[in-house]
Q: What sequence folds into this?
C-alpha cells in the first residue's frame, strides 16, 4: 500500500495527475454537441466518416460513434488505442505571470494544450495523413478545445490546477472539480445527464449566440483562449490564489503548495455559483463555436473564413 501511495505522489509531482479532467464528461460532450450544431453539412458528414476509421476509439464506448461522445475519449483511452497524452490537457505558467501572451508559449513545459491543438489540427488538415490518424486528431481536437476553455486548465503546476485546494459548502471536493463538474451539473444538468439532456443544453446555449459574439470569438487563436481562462484563474472571486505583489500565490503566506502542506479551502455557496455559472456557460459555448469553425475550415473546402 505504501508503495502505491508513494508512486501516486511521484506521478502527481511530475504533472501526471494535474488538471486530470476538464469539464468532466458532461462539459466535454456539451462542447462537441455545440460544435456539431454549427458544422456545415459537408463537415458534419466528414466527421461521421472519419469516426468510423478509428476502431479502437469506437471500441472504447459504442457511443463514441457520435462526435459529442467521442470527445471524452482522451480522458478514457482504450489500451489498444491512442493514449491519454497527459501533459497536453493543460498549460502551466509561472505564478508571476500576470497575463498570458503569445510569448508565454507552454510556460516551462515543452508541450501543453496550446501546442496539442496546433499539432492535431495540422494532422487533421494534412492531405497525406491516413484517415485513422485524422480521426484520432479529430477526437483529440474536440477534447483540447474543451480543456483550454476550462479556466483552471491555465494555471499552476504545484497545486495541480486547483486539485490541491479544497472546496466546501455546495461542492465538497477540490476547487478544480468544482469548476469541472459540480457547478455545471448543479445548475445546468441536474438529474441523469442523459444524451437527450446534453443535446438539449447544447441546442439552448448554441441558440443564444449572437452574430457579434460569434465574430468576436472567432477572431482569436489558441493562446488567447488560454489567456481568457487564465484571467478567470487569477480573478479574486475564483478563490484560486492570493495576489501578492502581482504574483498569484497559493495563499497569503505561501507562494506555492508543496506535498504535505496544509491545504486551503474555498467556500462554494449560492452566490459563488451565481457568479461562476455564466462564465462556465460562456466558456463551454465559446469552445463549441470555435471548434466548429476550425472543423469547418479543415473539412469543408467551400467554407468561408468569415464568421
A:
Amino acid at each position: 500500500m505504501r508503495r502505491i501511495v508513494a508512486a501516486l505522489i511521484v506521478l502527481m509531482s511530475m504533472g501526471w495527475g494535474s488538471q486530470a479532467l476538464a469539464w468532466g464528461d458532461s462539459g466535454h460532450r456539451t462542447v462537441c454537441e455545440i460544435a456539431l450544431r454549427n458544422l456545415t453539412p459537408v463537415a458534419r458528414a466528414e466527421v461521421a466518416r472519419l469516426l468510423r476509421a478509428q476502431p479502437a476509439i469506437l471500441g472504447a464506448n459504442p457511443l463514441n460513434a457520435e462526435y459529442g461522445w467521442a470527445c471524452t475519449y482522451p480522458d478514457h483511452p482504450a489500451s489498444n488505442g491512442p493514449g491519454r497524452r497527459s501533459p497536453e490537457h493543460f498549460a502551466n505558467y509561472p505564478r508571476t505571470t500576470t497575463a498570458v501572451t503569445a510569448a508565454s508559449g507552454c510556460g516551462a513545459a515543452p508541450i501543453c494544450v496550446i501546442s496539442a491543438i496546433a499539432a492535431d489540427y495540422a494532422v487533421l488538415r494534412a492531405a497525406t495523413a491516413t484517415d485513422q490518424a485524422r480521426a484520432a486528431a479529430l477526437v483529440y481536437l474536440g477534447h483540447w478545445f474543451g480543456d483550454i476553455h476550462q479556466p483552471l486548465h491555465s494555471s499552476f503546476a504545484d497545486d495541480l490546477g486547483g486539485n490541491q485546494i479544497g472546496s466546501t459548502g455546495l461542492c465538497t471536493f477540490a476547487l478544480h472539480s468544482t469548476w469541472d463538474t459540480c457547478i455545471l451539473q448543479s445548475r445546468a444538468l441536474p438529474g441523469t445527464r442523459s444524451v437527450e439532456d446534453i443535446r438539449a443544453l447544447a441546442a439552448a446555449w448554441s441558440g443564444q449566440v449572437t452574430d457579434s459574439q460569434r465574430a468576436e470569438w472567432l477572431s482569436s487563436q489558441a493562446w488567447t483562449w488560454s489567456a481568457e481562462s487564465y484571467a478567470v484563474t487569477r480573478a479574486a472571486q475564483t478563490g484560486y490564489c492570493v495576489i501578492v505583489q502581482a504574483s498569484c500565490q497559493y495563499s497569503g503566506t505561501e507562494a506555492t503548495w508543496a506535498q504535505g502542506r496544509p491545504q486551503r479551502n474555498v467556500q462554494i455557496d449560492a452566490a459563488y455559483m451565481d457568479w461562476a455559472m455564466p462564465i462556465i456557460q460562456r466558456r463551454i459555448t465559446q469552445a463549441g463555436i470555435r471548434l466548429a469553425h476550425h472543423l469547418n475550415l479543415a473539412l469543408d473546402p467551400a467554407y468561408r473564413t468569415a464568421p
About this structure: The domain at 2-299 is CATH 1.10.575.10 (P1 Nuclease). The chain has a mean pLDDT of 92. The chain is about 50% helix and 5% strand.
